[in-house]
Amino acid sequence: MDAVLLLAYGLRDMLAAGETVDPESLNCSVIPHPEWSRGETFLQHLHMVDGPGVTGRVSMKSDGSSRNAVYDVVTLEKDGWKKVGRWNDSAGLTLPERVTFMGGQQEVIDFISDLSNRTLRVVTHKEQGFVHIRDTDEWGKNLTGKERFSGFCIDLLEWLSEKLGFRYELYEVEDNNFGAYDPELKKWNGMVHDVITKTADIAMATLTITAQREEACDFTMPYVDVGLTFIMGKEETKTYSLLNFLTPFERDLWFMFVVTAVAVGIFQAVINYLSPYGYRAQEQPGQSERSKRRRRHEDLNAKPPYRLSDAVWQSFTMLVQIGPEVFPRSYAGRITAIFFGLGTMVLLATYTANLAAFLTVSRLMSGINSVEDLAAQSEVLYGARGSGATESFFLESKLEPYKTMARLMTEKRDDVMVTSMEEGLKKVREGNYAFISDNVVLDYVATRQPCDIKTVGRLFRNAGYGVLLAKGSPYTGEFSNAIIQARESGFIETLTKKWITSNECDKSQNTGASQDRISINKMLGVFVVIYGGMCVSLVVLVFEWLVASCRDVDTKKPKAPKSIGEAVSKNLRSQARRYKSDWDSFCGDKRELDDNRTEIRMKRRSANNNTSANHYNTRDHRPFSACSSEPDGEEELLHVTVL
């Protein structure tokens, strides 16, 4: 608490003095450690702090210790704690009465171990990157003694030997186990057993610090921080395909895309055919006779300008952002085109962005990207090394998904549990198997040739590797202090770069990140917009009919509709006859249709020279095809002329 108050007082005084406090990103793994640009100024203010604290006045001396520190010396007796003395910076230790310490001692004697005259027997376990054991060198020369061993742990052991002054002898554990407790036999195996039975003085290997092991032995401070993860085989590189550019979207999405384009085209053709303001519009009552004749002449001598093929063609040209040759004339058709254009814009932008990601990011096809994904599926088996800390973690865990994974590993123990790292790697490369172990060991394997496996998922069960000593060993503190010094000086980082880190494989291939293909579920909103626009177009079509019918209402003309309902009814009957006529013309023979059109043109020329309108009512003239019905007056003949 006083340390936190000291920092708070220092920052307060620094800001009050007008100094700026700019946070900077520092990398603590860089050797030598970078300094904060404002650190020297901040330290000066800390030295001048003097304020109230929890244990007294908060004030720091030049060496960083408390200026006013006062400590009570207490002893634990049957009736509780008893104060027997005091220590302060000025007077030192004051004991008013004699105190009997453990062992009946009246004076405190500091224990000083002497490792410089000792030879320690060290047990180790083979592990890639950390402990390599070989009988011959690269030239075939036989190796003996400590020459057989190399790796991260061996270099660290040699460094500790130089710092603490001891000599050592190395041997490999006989049963090839790290150390696990057998509740039936009530004894330990592996390196832990050797240390407990004093066959070895210390164990130096990738031995994870666990609570169960610390009950039987002592651990030093961890020299490496580790966590559990798992490795899987990489997907085989697929052969190049000419259709790789289609990979950003799933097949269902492409299919829906094309179907929607065709549906919009058909819908556009129908809307523009039905609309009174489309290309095939009926003549409006307000038009002059000259305008009507010009309109009939244009419609008679030109092809229908917005046919079904034109509408579908317009949809596909919008997909590739090419302007169509013909645009819809009616408002309902324009609304459909706008909504379809909006959806097309979103789809094309999404496709372009995802295609860029596919071309620049290495994709992993596996759907397993975390330990939760691994536990939730049943196709890929998973396991770990037996009789070790990893297996104990799963068996003792009370959390999901580790409980479920432990149950499966217990049921299929013979199939999923292995006895060595080499066996685990072999099962991974054979396929449909994930091997769970410490991340630093798996990183060593995954970053080296043949680069056919990858580490997957985040770390779980954080722990550390430590040096194992016998329970109550007088050397535990000395080893811990030396390990802390090795970490602070950067020696551990140097060993990591020497033995663990590798650039043999592309780092991006060893991650669990993946670039997913866009599915139809992720783009449903776009199709809702498109088909929603088509529904809006239908509403607008109804309004167009109402507006056109309102224009037909005329109470002065005897034959004109007198109400909107009557106008709508009349227009619907007229349109029904027109659609039937168009359908009959479509069913007829093309040659006969051409003859009819030629005969109609001749009749029109004759009609222009004849003032009698009854000429069009002649029943003997049949301008329809073989499957059409008889004409019914001037209005029906007018619609055939539009064809």
Automatic annotation (TrEMBL):
Biased composition, class Polar residues, residue ranges: 607-616
Intrachain S-S bonds: C451-C505
GO biological process terms held by the UniProt record: modulation of chemical synaptic transmission; synaptic transmission, glutamatergic
Region Disordered, annotated ranges: 604-632
GO molecular function: glutamate receptor activity; transmitter-gated monoatomic ion channel activity involved in regulation of postsynaptic membrane potential
Amino acids binding L-glutamate: T208, R213, T390, D438
PANTHER family per the UniProt record, alphabetical: IONOTROPIC GLUTAMATE RECEPTOR (PTHR18966)
Keywords tagged on the record: Cell membrane, Disulfide bond, Glycoprotein, Ion channel, Ion transport, Ligand-gated ion channel, Membrane, Postsynaptic cell membrane, Receptor, Synapse, Transmembrane, Transmembrane helix, Transport
Protein name: Glutamate receptor ionotropic, kainate 2-like
GO-annotated cellular components: plasma membrane; postsynaptic density membrane
Organism for this UniProt entry: Branchiostoma floridae
Membrane topology (UniProt): Multi-pass membrane protein
Site-annotated residues for Crucial to convey clamshell closure to channel opening: I368
Biological classification of the source: Eukaryota, Metazoa, Chordata, Cephalochordata, Leptocardii
Residue spans crossing the bilayer: 253-274, 337-359, 523-547
SUPFAM superfamilies registered for this protein in UniProt: Periplasmic binding protein-like I, Periplasmic binding protein-like II, Voltage-gated potassium channels
Domain Ionotropic glutamate receptor L-glutamate and glycine-binding: from-to ranges: 130-197
Domain Ionotropic glutamate receptor C-terminal: 119-502
Protein localization: Cell membrane; Postsynaptic cell membrane
SMART domains: Lig_chan-Glu_bd, PBPe
Domain of life: Eukaryota
